[in-house]
Amino acid sequence: xxxxxNAADRLPGRREPNxxxxxxxxxxxxxxxxxxxxxxxxxxxRRSGRGIRRHWRATPWLFLLPGLAITLLFxxxxxxxxxxxxxTDAQVLxxxxxxxxxxFSRMLHDPQFWxxxxxxxxxxxxxVPFLVLLPLLLAxxxxxxxPGIAFFRAAFYTPVxxxxxxxxxxxxxxxDSRGLVNSVLKALHVVSEPVPxxxxxxxxxxxxxxxxIWKGLGYYMIVYxxxxxxxxxxxxEAAEVDGAGPVRRFFSVTVPAIRPTMVxxxxxxxxxxxxxxxxxxxxSGSSGGPAGADISLxxxxxxxxxxxxxxxxxxxxxxxxxxxxxxxxxxxxxRLNKNEEVA
Length: 343
What we know:
This protein is mainly α and 343 residues long. It has two domains: 44-75; 102-342, MetI-like fold (Orthogonal Bundle). The protein contains 13 helices and two strands. The chain has helices spanning 32-85, 102-108, 111-142, 149-161, 164-175, 180-187, 201-229, 233-241, 246-257, 259-274, 278-283, 297-305, 312-342, and strands spanning 21-23, 29-31. The chain is globular. Mean pLDDT is 83; it is low at 1-28.
């Protein structure tokens, strides 16, 4: 029997689809106007999605904008402006003619600059070795888990959170000619006359170094504690099995494991020591020692660049030199740290 596939289409009562209707996914007739509305809504949703995506791409920059504005306004702009002023004869009350390298040439013939550079270099030499070694010994002592050790950790760290001005004033009272230190020395008949800790050129610089070391011990102790916690215990146990004593384990296991941290501490303390200001300024009563003999580079920058007759151009040139020397210290440290990692 031959069947006609289109016979059903010729059945009585069969209605052709209306030209004004379309079939939906469920074969239900949907008016063409509704389909147009659906397509328009889809296009609107897609446009809205693109807008949302654009909005989300811009959101991180909106959060960063306040920080970027502050950085540009208070860091980048002053840095660039200082470099520009270094090549001018700008004064506090006006001026600013381009002078080329005149400020740097003047610096080479300025005895006060060489005195400040010498004092800053001596400060680095006198402070850095102690701030590398003494905090490490303190960290070795307080890393042990014994009753009451938390008190000593807090005591060693207390000077770090104290204001440098407060610390400087305390040490000024201690080292004064009528202060506690001289009173104790005289009571013990160690000295007959007060020791000029704050008025002698050499003793003033040494006293400032002691204040810097005392204040920085706790900070670098925490850095070393974090490094010591990462030294594998297995290495100490293996060295102990081989018969190595505490001193041998310290030099053969601990020091090699934390050598990158020691380089980091040396770099941070060297940069901070080279930029010393508060300790010498407070202990000397803002004079920089007798006839300014203990003045540092930062103190010289402040002295030259402030006041009604301040020379902003020369002060900026000194700041540029300080920046270059500090950058050189950091690059040297990075080179040493890289060599340690390769080794």
